[in-house]
Each structure stands twice: as C-alpha cells, then as structure tokens.
Amino acid sequence: MAKVFYMSEAASIALHSMVMIARRNEMMNVLKISELIGSSKHHVAKVLQRLVKDDLLISSRGPFGGFTLKKKPSEIALLEIFESIEGRIEISKCPNDIAICPFDKCILGTVANKMTKEFREYMNEQTLDKYL
C-alpha cells in the first residue's frame, strides 16, 4: 500500500526514544529502549549516539549508565530530533529537486511544498514536554 508520508526507522527510533527518556527520572540504557520499541539494540545505539553528537542527549558508560536529556523537555522540539537524524528539512521549488523540468507548470502544484511546510511547523511546535 502506498503512503504519502513515510518516516524512516531511524527517525522513529529517535523520536520514540527521546520521549521515553524524557518520561524517566533516571538513565535509560539501549537494551531497555530497544526492548520497548522493538528495534535492534545496535540500531538504537547508533541513533542515540547521533543524538548525543547533536547535543540532545548525555551518554554515560558503565553498569548504571545510559542516556538522559541534555536540555529540559520543553526546550527540545521534535523537529530538532527529526533533523538530527534525517537532515534539515528544505522547502524547494520542485518536490523532486529536478533541475530541468519538461513542464512550464508543476503538475503537483504547490501541494508538496504546503505539506512539507506544515510538517516542519508542526514538528517545531511540538516539544517533548507535551508527551510526558
């Protein structure tokens, strides 16, 4: 079945992990997160390390280690998390980034740009504290 909207597994892991970590008062480790979201511990670890690199999480090693938020939940927008994994969301003239178009007018009109803009605005308005 076709979908207009698709989110990568990595972006889904990032968003869900960040909400779970925000809901806890103590550190959460990769094993617990991977168990709760049903993803490979290796994939979860890779995603979480990306979030550490982008200053969204703090990582601690050791038997009682894990991950905690680097900022308050109210200061972390879902857009920050999403773009950490997927890259910056760009709104361009052509939804397929085709340099030379055979048409004078885009056959998709402005619908793709409107959807992208609305998604970006929605994700920027949503902060982790709204999911606690």
Sum up the structure in keywords.
mainly alpha; elongated; 6% strand; 132 residues; Arc Repressor Mutant, subunit A; 5 helices; two-stranded antiparallel ribbon
CATH class: Mainly Alpha
What portion of the residues fall into strands of 2 or more residues? 5-15%
**SSE ordering:** HHHEEHH
- Cα end-to-end separation: 33 Å
**Helical content (DSSP H or I, runs of 4+):** 40-55%
In short:
The protein is mainly α and 132 residues long. Helices cover 45% and strands 6% of the residues. A hairpin with a 5-residue loop joins strand 1 and strand 2.
Structure description:
- With 132 residues, the chain is mainly α.
- The protein contains five helices and two strands, in the order αααββαα.
- The protein has helices spanning 9-23, 30-37, 41-53, 78-86, 111-125; strands spanning 57-60, 66-69.
- The two termini are 33 Å apart.
Q: How is the secondary structure organized here?
A:
Blueprint: H1 9-23, H2 30-37, H3 41-53, E1 57-60, E2 66-69, H4 78-86, H5 111-125
Antiparallel strand pairs: 1-2
